[in-house]
Amino acid sequence: MQSSATGEVCFVLKTYPYKERDVIAVLLSEKKGRFSALARNGIQSRRFGGSLDLFTCSEFALDPKTIRLSDIQEDILVQVLSAQVKRTPGLAGSFEKLSGASALNEIILRVIPPQRPAPEIFKLYSNALLAIEDLPADQTLKIVNAFILKITQWLGVQPSLTRCMVCEKTLNEIEGHSVCAQVAQGAWICDACRPDRSGLTLSKDTILDAYHSMLNPIRKIEFMATTREHEEMLEFLEKHLQYFVPGLDRAPIGALRFLKSPQWPT
Ligand SMILES: [Zn+2]
Predict the structure, then answer these.
(1) Among 36-40, 85-89, 149-153, 198-202, which stretch is predicted with the lowest mean pLDDT?
(2) Which domains does the chain have, with CATH numbers?
(3) How far is the CA of 56 from the centre of ligand 1 (A)?
């Protein structure tokens, strides 16, 4: 998606009311990365239409002058002059898809620094959101796992998945069907090297999926592992983020809990 000269194409990550009638929107664009914008009269004004709805991709005309509001500390804001919907999300009616899309938004809000151009993150988010919309709902968790893995690559804190961290054998060379994830090392140990069987057990298929998730575009990944196995991967990835991304140890990413459901078929 390209921004035209007059506007900025953005996804809406979060909105909240400000004062009585205004709305502050946290947006993600190709050129500006994550940033916040003030939509005066955004609560009711018809000129914004559905352009400020979550997950919507809209073209925003922005006043480049920045605003500082005394009671909003964390962000510099720009002002939305007008906005036009380019694409509405196709998530309606699926709790899993809505939870997955919410997880994408929360992860961007928590781990991507504001006011920093991140075209690859814009593209990744856009592709992940489209994949969640297009694929069956039971694939959502797998897309979110792939998204998290790609985010860890972007942050430079990706887990090391190709070899056992002790004997350095590859997945093909080791015995058994599972390995043991080591959060603090961001790696795994094979059964033969781990006599005490401590740590988080992940199936070989899950490791393979994670490996492919880091190598391939999100729409091209062919997932092998079951949903249940991916729940275990999510468990590991949450711990991984908490361990390696500053600030995430203080509060978990709330939206992820809705993706873990004991009644899902395996
Ligand atoms: Zn080993």
Answers:
(1) 198-202
(2) 8-87 (2.40.50.140), 95-259 (1.20.1440.120)
(3) 46
